[in-house]
Amino acid sequence: MSTQPRVRMYATATCPYCIRAEQLLLHKGVGEFDKIRVDLDPARREEMMKASGRRTVPQIFIGDYHVGGCDDLHALDRAGKLDALLRGEPA
Q1: Is residue 2 part of a domain?
Q2: Could you list the mean pLDDT of each consecutive 10-residue stretch along the chain, which spans 91 residues?
Q3: What pLDDT, on the 0 to 100 scale, is given for residue 4?
Q4: What local confidence, expressed as pLDDT, does residue 31 receive?
Q5: Where does the Glutaredoxin domain lie (predicted)?
Q6: By three-state DSSP, how is residue 44 classified?
Q7: pLDDT value of position 7
Q8: Which of 29, 11, 21 is nearest to 75 (CA)?
Q9: What is the residue range of 76's domain?
Q10: How many independent structural domains does the chain possess?
Q11: Residue 61: which of 27, 10, 19, 20 has the closest Cα?
């Protein structure tokens, strides 16, 4: 039995893609996740860039798996793979 992995999203306050990604996660039943505001803490942006290799927000991680941005999250959902990841099953 898998445990539900922690979801981590690097975001800014006004990013429309961050808002869309958050809405999808909430729709999928992710009640709590780590929302890291890189606009408030430049060190966290550096952390995000090291972890993801990308500069843009959002950057979403489900457990140790780097999903990518909002479009990547929605693509996983359309492909039917997001629910499994959220349950802790391999990508």
Answers
A1: no
A2: 85 97 97 95 96 97 97 98 93 69
A3: 86
A4: 87
A5: 7-67
A6: helix
A7: 98
A8: 21
A9: 7-86
A10: 1
A11: 10
